[in-house]
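Sat 14:20. Reprocessing the chain from the morning session after the first attempt stalled halfway. Input below, unchanged.
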Amino acid sequence: MKMTIDAMFAKHIMRDYGRDYFTTTALEAIFDYYDEIDDGNTEFDPIAICCEWNEYGDGAALGFSDFVNDYSYLMDGDEDFNDLDDDDKIDTLINEIDARTYIMQLENGNILLAVF
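Finished this time. Tokens:
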């Protein structure tokens, strides 16, 4: 038996699993991604989603400073990176990561990226 769920219902399930790491906007984007690659046939697995995705920003479990801390190693050797303000560091890291994995800026201003 299959059941179609939306992002709000998924958010409640994830909260029940103790995995309330994502905003509803991020969950909608994740669902859209899976619908696009698998025509809506992906099984909902809250633990797998938490292992495969990170959201950084307001209302997410990880803030923008975590994003810079987690990925600034990609800019090792770029002496100018440390002189940038936080917004420019974020933009630079987004551009660098975009070549490596799926990353997007959400309409709520947060960053969502695949870590698989």
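The mean pLDDT is 91.
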